[in-house]
Amino acid sequence: MTDAAIIVAAGRGTRAGGDIPKQWQPLAGRRVADWTIDAIRAAGLSPVVIVLHPEELDAPGLPADLIRVAGGATRDASVRAGLAALDPDRVENVLIHDVARPCVPVAVIEGVRRALQTAEAAAPGLPVTDALWVGADGAVAGIQPRDGLFRAQTPQGFRLAPLLAAHAAHPGGAADDVEVARHAGLSVTITPGHEDNLKITHPGDFTRAEKILRGQMDIRMGNGFDVHAFEEGDHVWLCGVKVAHDKALKGHSDADVGMHAVTDAIYGALAEGDIGRHFPPSDPQWKGAASHIFLRHAVQLAAEKGFRISNVDCTLICERPKIGPHAAAMQQVMAEIMGMEVARVSVKATTSERLGFTGREEGIAAIATAVLIA
Ligand SMILES: Nc1ccn([C@@H]2O[C@H](COP(=O)(O)OP(=O)(O)OP(=O)(O)O)[C@@H](O)[C@H]2O)c(=O)n1
Ligand SMILES: C[C@](O)(CO)[C@H](O)COP(=O)(O)O
């Protein structure tokens, strides 16, 4: 039995403004929804259902393992659609989260899951700390005691079977799933919420969320440098592309000097040494190996450590062959290997003005930079 998640993302975000619904608007270099999905997946919840507006069911760029479901006209209708996609024989608990809360700290999610070990329902809340007024016509008409009042957050967690029954019995129009659960008589434990777990509701909330996410980011940068000498041959491999040439590059593997520099930049950002440490040249199994094996390993290692590659930039240093005609293809191949957008992969070249070993056409050098973000 597993703990599943439902991310409700079918709303229109009318209060947030903008040309597109808030979940698809940019936030700290990605879309709001991308941050929310990553936060939920990082907590180890599985399966993850995402409830989308019927016209956005084929939204691009979402992880392939998400279960996509069409939502309804209200939040509770969307939650019911998400619940229907879960298998009660396999899912014990379900955590329901607003896509509009992209900065949810993992501790908030863990707090809910921990409480569900004994409670039938649990949700994060923050005690109200400001004085509360009742307003009328722009004036204070009364004071509302704040004792015992909480601001409700998500994810809200429940045993799946009782929550399904609670939603089936509810007349509709609930603000959240805690309201539905309580209507059915379930007891809901309050777990610690967090100020960072704001719900993007109005235009100014994007700036607040961006500050929080940028503050949480772990940004690493690495560089890589590699050189391979020429030998007799009729082509070279550069950044995954076979380029016809009147020489070949000499090396233990396929001698793809550009891909090696990028791979070393990723290892460098992770403080994980270089290719030679992970694929020793003394090991005969790597003789003639295609360099994408090394690059894939570095990318996998980054993912295991919780990093995604934000961008890479590689400069090839040679007089010949001319790189310009092949640069777009090189970027495409490298992006595919790394699972990145092509626009985040740069391959360019320079000569060394006929100076030094590259100038004398004795070999090719490559330098690369990679930025990783967790
Ligand atoms: N029919 C709806 C309405 C809301 N939601 C989701 O419920 C969450 C909380 O709702 P809210 O913040 O109010 O989002 P919107 O409904 O999109 O915003 P607005 O009310 O400003 O239009 C959001 O993640 C939203 O996508 C949903 O899945 N289906
Ligand atoms: C579910 C919720 O985020 C808990 O605070 C909140 O009730 C959603 O309210 P909205 O009016 O749909 O934004």
Kindly describe this structure.
- With 374 residues, the chain is α/β, with parallel strands linked by helices.
- It folds into two domains: 2-216, Spore Coat Polysaccharide Biosynthesis Protein SpsA, Chain A; 219-373, 2-Layer Sandwich (60s Ribosomal Protein L30, Chain: A), CATH 3.30.1330.
- The protein has eleven helices and 19 strands.
- The protein has helices at 32-42, 75-84, 106-115, 160-169, 177-183, 205-216, 257-269, 275-278, 292-304, 327-338, 356-359; strands at 2-9, 26-27, 30-31, 48-52, 67-70, 91-98, 121-127, 132-136, 139-144, 150-152, 156-159, 189-192, 219-231, 235-238, 241-244, 248-249, 308-317, 345-350, 363-373.
- Strands 1, 4, 5, 6, 7, 10, 11 and 12 form an eight-stranded mixed β-sheet that branches. It has a five-stranded mixed β-sheet with strand order 16-13-19-17-18.
- Helix 10 links the parallel strand 17 and strand 18 (345-350).
- The longest helix is centred in the last third of the chain and has 13 residues, at 257-269.
- The protein starts with a strand and ends with a strand.
- The mean pLDDT is 96.
- Bound molecules: cytidine-5'-triphosphate and ligand LQXTBERG.
- The site of cytidine-5'-triphosphate has 21 residues, from strand 1 and helix 2.
- Cytidine-5'-triphosphate (CTP) binds at residues 8-16, 51, 71-75, 78, 98-100, 199, 201.
- In the N-terminal section; belongs to the IspD/TarI cytidylyltransferase family. IspD subfamily.
- This is Bifunctional enzyme IspD/IspF.
- GO terms for molecular function: 2-C-methyl-D-erythritol 2,4-cyclodiphosphate synthase activity; 2-C-methyl-D-erythritol 4-phosphate cytidylyltransferase activity; metal ion binding.
- The record marks 146, 199 as: Positions MEP for the nucleophilic attack.
- 4-CDP-2-C-methyl-D-erythritol 2-phosphate binds at residues 226-228, 252-253, 274-276, 350-353, 357, 360.
